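TASK: fixed-backbone design
INPUT:
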């Protein structure tokens, strides 16, 4: 494994960003990237956000990780719908090869978390630890009311993460993961970040039992804890 990792790293290219932005010429097509990527051997983190998310939404994560000495990179993946998941996985693997990343940490938010999980399933030896965040339901009371009237599942954390259940709430009491999770090993143990709230208000006591139950069920499928 060490020899293979060294081979991947030696075959990598140098990434130069201007103003924190750059273009990576991949076999799959030019890929727009941004972040902080100094020439160093510091830990590498790839940040994956939701479908069609504004770049500014993830900038705080990039800045925070960069301040801790990490190399951090986000990419504008070609997928614009959930149906493009496999295409995005192909592009991510090509990006890893181009950069010479043998096993980076992946920080995935909302559908970015699903991209990270699928990448781990397809290429377990090329992905390090997963940090998975449910962010879509992290809203205040007013926005909660608006979201609840449109999608009561999403506002309680069951938006993108429903992919783990094959897109439908389980009919069995054990809330077992769906076929999409076949092959997921859960090693190293993923970190699951979950916005516990009760109608848009911070809920550290987990009084919103529905959200707490969903968090526990997703965590079980991911072989971790929320």
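OUTPUT:
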């Amino acid at each position: 494994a060490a020899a293979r990792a060294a081979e991947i790293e030696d075959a990598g290219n140098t990434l130069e960003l201007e103003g924190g932005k750059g273009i990576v010429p991949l076999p799959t097509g030019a890929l727009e990237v941004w972040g902080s990527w100094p020439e160093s051997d510091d830990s590498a983190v790839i940040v994956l956000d939701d479908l069609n998310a504004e770049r500014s939404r993830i900038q705080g994560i990039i800045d925070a990780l960069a301040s801790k000495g990490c190399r951090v990179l986000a990419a504008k993946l070609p997928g614009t719908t959930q149906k493009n998941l496999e295409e995005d996985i192909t592009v991510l693997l090509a990006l890893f090869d181009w950069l010479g990343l043998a096993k980076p940490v992946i920080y995935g938010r909302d559908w970015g978390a699903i991209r990270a999980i699928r990448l781990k399933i397809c290429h377990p030896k090329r992905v390090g630890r997963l940090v998975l965040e449910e962010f879509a339901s992290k809203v205040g009371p007013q926005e909660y009311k608006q979201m609840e009237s449109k999608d009561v599942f999403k506002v309680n954390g069951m938006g993108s993460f429903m992919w783990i259940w094959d897109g439908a709430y389980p009919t069995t009491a054990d809330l077992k993961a769906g076929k999409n999770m076949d092959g997921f090993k859960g090693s190293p143990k993923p970190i699951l970040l979950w916005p516990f709230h009760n109608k848009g208000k911070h809920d550290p006591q987990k009084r919103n039992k529905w959200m707490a139950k969903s968090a526990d069920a997703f965590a079980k499928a991911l072989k971790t804890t929320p």
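COMMENT: The beta strands are 21-26, 29-36, 44-48, 71-75, 105-109, 130-133, 191-193, 197-198, 201-202.
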